[in-house]
Amino acid sequence: MQLTPIDHFYLTKEEPNKSCLLALRDIILAQDPDVTAEWKYNMPFFYYKGKMFCYLWVHTKKQWPFLGMVEGKHLHHPDLTFEDRARIKIMIFNPEEDLPVDTIRFILNEAIDLYRSGLIKLPKRKQ
After folding, report:
1. Listed residue (15, 83, 12, 86) closest to 44, CA to CA
2. Taking a C-beta distance cutoff of 8 angstroms, is the pair 46, 38 a contact?
3. pLDDT in tens, 46-96
4. Angle between helices 101-116 and 17-31 (to 10 degrees)
5. Which of 61, 73, 95, 118 has its CA 20 to 30 A from that of 1?
6. What pTM, to 2 d.p., does this model score?
7. For 81, left (φ over 0), alpha (ψ -120 to 50), or beta?
8. Which residues pair with 119 in a beta bridge?
């Protein structure tokens, strides 16, 4: 069976990063039925109703997984940081520790609310 690029991303990571990233993926996908996984910019992205929502990556310096929130500039949570980004905020995870699942779900829900409220415009549905 041929691996998709998105499968390859997860399966080629070393432990404990691999398990951490897979758990993050599952948390994101379970957040809302309108969240879908896509392969964009050579990384796993997640879309909400066709609009880029968040992504997973490994921090260059720390080599720890992180969750990038596309509309992070609208999110105000102490666990999110801009680092050197103007729009995206990230949440970095120590893969040796338990994930703060409730905090992740809270942040994801706050982000989805940006789309639900209309603050972030969703693409027009094809008729």
Report:
1. 12
2. yes
3. 999 999 999 999 999 999 999 999 999 999 999 999 998 889 999 999 999
4. 40
5. 95
6. 0.92
7. beta
8. none
Q: Are 104 and 91 in contact (CB under 8 A)?
A: yes
The three-state (H, E, C) secondary structure of the chain, written as one string = CCCCHHHHHHHCCCCCHHHHHHHHHHHHHHHCCCEEEEEECCEEEEEECCEEEEEEEECCCCCCEEEEECCHHHCCCCCCECCCCCCCEEEECCCCCCCCHHHHHHHHHHHHHHHHCCCCCCCCCCC
Round to whole Å and give the CA distance between 53 and 27.
14
60 token code pair:
């260059």
Instruction: Return phi, psi of residue 54, to 5°.
Output: -155, 170
| Amino acid code (one letter) for 28 | I
